[in-house]
Request: fold
Amino acid sequence: MPPFASALRTFDRLLALLARAVSVISGLCLVLLVVFFGWLVFGRYVLNATPTWVEQVALLLIVVITFFSTASNTREGANLSVEILPLMLPWRWRRWLLALIDLILAGFGLLMALKGFDLALFAWTTKVPMLNVPEGLRSLPLVVCGVLLALFCTANAVKRFALGEPPPRSETEPPVRGLE
Reply:
């Protein structure tokens, strides 16, 4: 086992806590979205006074939910992916392919963060109608997700080699006989 394996495991636990926090934030935003739409329906049909701010807040919450969930799911390997080729390879080759995929996703996350930051700066002076907050707030979840994707995917790629242990087989993964 490499000498820095202990530090890597500690860092991995910190990333797991960060992913959990991001997932909790995403869940809370989902709860708020349901509550705000409940208020919208109540205001429209019972009070006969539609709260116009709900739709703008809902758009912002949906962006947060989408991007934060994507980041935390990527950390856990629960993102949507097609893994037929990696499953056909023995672990010594599979980890190279999976690490390459992780590094490509990390690069994509870095690009997302940089371009999302540019977009946030560009739109910061414009105000969101009904809310009077900067339009650039809609782009900040894109930046956070990009940074988290880069961090989580790079850590996943490093873990594949530094710890040298194959990932546990999932219950749905068919056994691959004769390849390992």
